[in-house]
């Protein structure tokens, strides 16, 4: 029975070691997933912080755009007032056949925009350029005629300055609007990267939880084996103690019997050897 219990204990011990080894492997795997998750969460926060920075820069640029637009519109309005006064002057002096400078400037700007943005044939582009030149010449002619009048010359110069200032500001508006769009696009890209990083972090966390739960299960199995080993140790220890006690009792009986034989011989007149004497002392017969 004792040998059978010892063999069973060996199996439980081997099983315990397997659970311990598997638990350690799973804990190491869980730690790996935890490190990956933490690194990804850090990366996510960095992307979100970067997105916020780009959002702030975008909003700042948009505020500047709005402020400059108001300034540009004010200058255009001042120029328009002067051009209206110039047009009224022309009408009063019989120049009704001529198109107004203000209207010509709008048409020139429209045609120049078409030339820069539309895909047209060489002949069409040449025709467009000629038309622009013709209109600009007409503007110069009208301006030359108006400049003969001192008051109109002053208003015309002021209107030009207002229009030039508005044009310069519009260039800044365009530049800032493009910059705001750049910041916006970068912000969107940052948020997309943050979403991807967050998804990866969630996957790593899921793997971490699964590995940790499996490691916990293996640890429970390990503890159960350890408890079973302690139970076996108690039973085996008891049996061994009992076996040793039985063996000692048998030995003591054998010694007692031999001592009684020697003692009987001694009483019969036989001499005792040193070993005989020691044996009698052990059996407490002398």
From TrEMBL:
Coiled coil: 2-29, 125-159
InterPro entries: DUF7121 (IPR055545)
Keywords: Coiled coil
Region annotated Disordered, chain positions: 44-71
Lineage of the organism: Archaea, Methanobacteriati, Methanobacteriota, Stenosarchaea group, Methanomicrobia
Tagged with keyword Coiled coil: yes
Protein's UniProt name: Putative phosphoserine phosphatase
Source species, domain of life: Archaea
Organism: Methanosphaerula palustris (strain ATCC BAA-1556 / DSM 19958 / E1-9c)
Pfam families (UniProt xref): DUF7121 (PF23435)
């Amino acid at each position: 029975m004792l040998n059978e219990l010892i063999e069973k204990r060996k199996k439980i011990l081997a099983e315990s070691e397997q659970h311990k080894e598997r638990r350690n492997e799973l804990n190491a795997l869980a730690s790996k997933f935890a490190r990956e998750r933490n690194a990804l969460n850090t990366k996510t926060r960095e992307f979100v912080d970067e997105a916020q920075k780009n959002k702030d820069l975008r909003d700042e640029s948009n505020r500047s755009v709005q402020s400059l637009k108001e300034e540009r519109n004010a200058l255009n309005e001042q120029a328009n007032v002067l051009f209206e006064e110039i047009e009224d002057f022309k009408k009063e002096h019989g120049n009704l056949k001529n198109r107004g400078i203000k209207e010509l400037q709008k048409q020139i700007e429209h045609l120049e925009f078409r030339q820069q943005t539309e895909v047209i044939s060489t002949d069409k582009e040449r025709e467009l350029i000629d038309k622009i030149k013709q209109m600009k010449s007409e503007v110069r002619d009208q301006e030359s005629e108006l400049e003969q009048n001192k008051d109109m010359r002053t208003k015309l110069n002021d209107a030009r300055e207002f229009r030039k200032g508005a044009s310069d500001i519009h260039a800044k508006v365009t530049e800032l609007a493009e910059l705001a769009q750049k910041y916006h696009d970068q912000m969107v890209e940052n948020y997309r990267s943050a979403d991807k990083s967050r998804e990866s972090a969630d996957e790593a966390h899921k793997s971490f939880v699964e590995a940790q739960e499996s490691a916990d299960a293996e640890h429970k199995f390990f503890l159960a084996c350890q408890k079973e080993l302690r139970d076996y140790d108690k039973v085996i220890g008891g049996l061994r103690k009992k076996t040793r006690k039985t063996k000692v009792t048998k030995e003591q009986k054998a010694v007692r019997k031999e001592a009684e034989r020697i003692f009987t011989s001694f009483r019969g007149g036989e001499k005792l050897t040193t070993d005989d004497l020691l044996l009698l002392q052990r059996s407490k017969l002398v």
